[in-house]
Design goal:
alpha+beta; 3-stranded mixed sheet; 61% helix
């Protein structure tokens, strides 16, 4: 039983290590190599690797309206092949995972909370008057 747990932990550590390296390389590629204006202003916020390291969900955020978000998604989707090829060369991986870009909604949620707090503050100060 101890061996199985140790193997699982090692697989989890490798999973995290490969994910962190891949995320760092993709961020660098977006900054230095990708010339698509649709991906400017995109911030990578996290990565989720499958256990077999064959699939990677990369989370990103971008400020702006829905139109800017759609453009960013299209730009990221159009650069997937280039990013996968370049990351594979840089990291010297036997198998480069399939990349899927997903929008991270946490910035929107944070903005929503900020608006609620401002509204509560202004309503609270008007109640005192």
């Amino acid at each position: 039983m101890g061996v199985k747990t140790e193997i699982t932990m090692l697989a989890g550590k490798r999973n995290k290590k490969v994910g962190d390296l891949l995320l760092r390389e993709i961020a660098d590629l977006l900054i230095r190599k990708v010339r698509d204006p649709r991906v400017q202003g995109v911030t990578l916020s996290g990565i989720e690797m499958s256990q077999d390291l064959k699939h990677a969900k990369i989370y990103y955020s971008v400020l702006g309206e829905d139109q800017e978000v759609q453009k960013a998604q299209q730009g990221l989707d159009s650069t997937k092949g280039f990013i996968k090829r370049e990351a594979g060369h840089r990291l010297n991986l036997k198998y480069v995972p399939e990349i899927q870009f997903r929008r991270d909604p946490s910035l929107d949620y944070g903005e929503h909370l900020e608006r609620l707090f401002r509204k509560m503050k202004t309503e609270g100060s008007s109640d005192l008057a």
